[in-house]
Design a protein that fits this description.
It is built from 15 helices and 32 strands. It is of the alpha+beta class. The strands form 9 sheets. Strands 1, 2, 3, 4, 5 and 6 form a 6-stranded antiparallel sheet that branches. A 5-stranded mixed beta barrel has the order 7-8-9-11-10. The chain has a 5-stranded mixed sheet with strand order 12-19-18-15-14. Helix 1 packs antiparallel against helix 14, helix 8 crosses helix 9 and helix 13 runs antiparallel to helix 14. The protein starts with a strand and ends in a 30-residue tail after the last helix. The N terminus and C terminus are likely disordered.
Length: 690
């Protein structure tokens, strides 16, 4: 039996986290770990939906050792302004069952559109979140197509994250008005580097080439490294339609074989792309380094360049491994420079490591699609020598530019990464202790020592993932807070202005500085824009990452649907109360539900990330190798279920199918209400919700 705690305890504010099983949790605003969460029993949510801001009142439960509980007393902020789901018809009325099984449904859809079909995936703008007598209601905003098709799921995810494939007409008009070649007047006053050997190195399919590199030695035998970045700010002027659209988007979005660009292709693949043997405007960061990799001089200049070759990572890696004599002969003029670049890259990498930068084993999976866009394989990208050298040179330029602006006390959009919080550090210390590691400090050298100690051992992947999850999330800020993961005192993003708005802002600031115009009102205006851009770009980065992750889950599930019943070797990548997440070598991840584990009474030990059977006879822990069978894969939701070999399959999949049957709406007479009285929220002024 539940009793209200004394009112002196007061109310607590936080975010409501729903589950698909009727209960939920509230994470307090001042919560530091999951132990601070409050359990919200069934029928105590107070009408809150997943993600809402709420106030709660503690409840007192009889019996010792019971989890602390509360009820939602008020919803103070709604998170789900729009909801995507699948349409159905009942009693000639249209309803939407949300894609997110943590949201209640069905939602009555109000629309005057004709020919809207049941079975389509759609989006509604919420007008009412329902009550005891009325169902939730929303107005139809978008229809994405048949729910069973991957493309409709992808379109819904992009919409939910406010990502649009299409550009407004005014933006396209500005992009198409851009010159096809660099005009002579634009070259005036720039550092002319067209006689230098400058190359781009990118993926074979890349079309937006925004960075190029050069390397030579000066008369004193020092390295002179040039990092030349497309001068996008010359074509995307502040306050233009192109600029406002780029600000809204914040970043390009990449998934499977597709990209949703920040800038129209007329710019990103055209005049802003450092295409081979064509004059292009750039901002060049030219650094003079000692043989030990220390930057002792630097020049940042507006330049005009003409790249010598458009190289690919694949070809460069073959060249540097001396694996193809014919290729070496073809590129004999640049091969010595490439070899010098690889050597300097190693020096820079060692220098970063000695100062405390972390070397995390973060392998990236990518989906391989056929000519029709269907996934045919999932592979892991392994970094080669050429990828590493480009990364090293871009890091060096980013640090150099950030330090340059900081020491001149000029505005800058910094890329910051703070050290782990005390709570995250303590959680990591607790998790690695059972594996035999004593982590005293959570500084860079100590974490790298931990990573090195686990290298080559069965727990290597687990330790690497634990460290990664203990780190704070990198973000953008107008204040220089350093970059913990790189061990860098100064850091910004300067090298990708075609696909990231913060880089474009940094270019704009540098251009004003180089032109002698970063003073007075101009400086104040850019300084004010910096913090707004930092916040906006951080938010858009999260939205892009969310969309990329959710979309790739759909592609991976579609791929795994063709491998039902097959057995795979994997590793436990996550442990929860409801089961184990298992990752395959390809990077595909699925759930092994607790119901599919042998025996009963599995207990979750959060501090050790372990599921332990009743009596302690068996356990599954983070990082443990595990053989699994693919039991189910749903391309429309991205959900993949595993089971153990020899175990009766689909316990969770069966429940999912049952849960995903759209619940029938209440009888018509109970929810008609006064539709005209419902408040319909307005979208952003002058711009449709995307």
């Amino acid at each position: 039996m539940l009793h209200m705690r004394d009112k002196q305890a007061g109310e607590i504010t936080g975010i409501y986290q729903a589950t698909s099983r009727g209960f939920g949790f509230v994470t307090p605003e001042d919560g530091k770990s999951r132990e601070d969460d409050w359990f919200i029993p069934p029928r105590s949510d107070g009408g809150a939906w997943h993600g809402d801001q709420v106030r709660i009142q503690p409840l007192e439960e009889e019996g010792e050792g019971r989890r602390r509980s509360a009820r939602v007393s008020a919803v103070t902020g709604r998170a789900n302004k729009t909801v995507t789901g699948i349409l159905s018809r009942h009693n000639r009325e249209l309803w939407l069952q949300p894609d997110n099984d943590k949201l209640p449904g069905p939602i009555q859809v109000l629309t005057k559109r004709r020919n809207v079909r049941a079975g389509d995936r759609a989006a509604v703008a919420m007008t009412s979140f329902g009550s005891a007598k009325l169902p939730p209601m929303g107005t139809l905003r978008e229809v994405f197509g048949p729910a069973g098709e991957r493309e409709s799921a992808v379109a819904a995810i992009l919409y939910q994250n406010d990502i649009s494939r299409d550009f407004p007409d005014a933006v396209l008009a500005e992009a198409m008005a851009a010159p096809q070649a660099v005009e002579e007047a634009a070259k005036a006053g720039r550092l002319d580097l067209r006689d230098k050997t400058i190359i781009t190195i990118d993926g074979a399919s890349s079309k937006d080439l925004d960075d190029a590199v050069s390397l030579e030695k000066d008369g004193r035998g020092r390295w002179v490294l040039g990092v030349h970045i497309a001068d996008v700010s010359h074509y995307v002027t502040q306050g233009s339609a192109l600029d406002l659209e780029a600000w809204e988007r914040g970043t390009s979005v990449y998934f499977a074989d597709q990209v949703v660009p920040m800038l129209p292709k007329e710019l990103s693949n055209g005049i802003c792309s450092l295409n081979p043997r064509a004059d292009r405007l750039a901002l060049s960061c030219i650094m003079t380094l000692t043989p030990e990799g220390e930057v002792v001089e630097h020049t940042i200049a507006k330049s005009v360049i003409r790249t010598t070759e458009r190289m690919t990572y694949e070809d460069c890696n073959v060249l540097l491994s001396h694996g193809d004599p014919a290729l070496a002969e073809r590129y004999q003029d640049i091969l010595p420079m490439l070899e010098d670049m690889a050597a300097l890259s190693k020096v820079l990498e060692g220098r970063r490591r000695r100062r405390g930068a972390l070397e995390l084993d973060t392998k990236e999976s990518y989906v391989i699609c056929d000519d029709t866009g269907a996934p045919v394989d999932v592979a892991v990208h392994s970094q080669g020598v050429s990828e590493a050298l480009i990364e090293s040179f871009m890091l060096a330029a980013n640090e150099c530019v950030a330090e340059h602006l900081n020491k001149l006390d000029k505005p800058c959009v910094y890329r910051v990464h703070e050290k782990p919080s005390p709570d995250k550090a303590e959680a990591l210390r607790t998790m690695v202790a059972p594996l035999g590691y004593d982590l005293k400090e959570a500084d860079g050298p100590s974490l790298q020592k931990l990573l090195d100690a686990s290298r080559g051992k069965p727990e290597e992947a687990a330790v690497s993932m634990m460290v990664l999850r203990a780190l704070m999330k990198a973000r953008y800020d107008g204040e220089n807070l350093g970059h913990f993961g790189l061990g860098a005192k100064y850091y910004c993003h300067f090298t990708s202005p075609i696909r990231r708005y913060p880089d474009l802002m940094v270019h704009r600031i540098l251009t004003a500085l180089l032109d002698g115009k970063l003073t007075g009102q101009r400086e104040k205006k850019l300084a004010a824009a910096v913090q707004k851009a930092a916040v906006q770009s951080s938010q858009r980065e999260i939205a892009a990452q969310t969309a990329e992750r959710e979309i790739e889950k759909r592609y991976m599930a579609e791929f795994m649907h063709g491998h039902l019943g097959e057995t795979f070797a994997g590793v436990v990548s996550g442990v929860t109360r409801f089961g184990l997440f298992v990752m395959l070598p390809s990077g595909v991840e699925g759930l092994l539900p607790v119901e599919a584990l042998p025996g009963q009474g599995w207990q979750y030990d959060e501090s050790r990330l372990t599921l332990v059977s009743e009596g302690g006879g068996a356990s599954y822990t983070f990082g443990a190798p595990l053989e699994v069978v693919c039991a189910a894969a749903d391309p429309t939701t991205g959900q993949i279920d595993f089971t153990l070999p020899g175990v009766d399959p689909l316990p969770r999949a069966a429940r999912r199918e049952k849960r995903e049957e759209a619940p029938r709406p209440p009888r018509r007479e109970k929810h008609r209400g006064n539709r005209r009285a419902m408040h319909v929220p307005k979208g952003r002024k002058g711009r449709k919700k995307r």
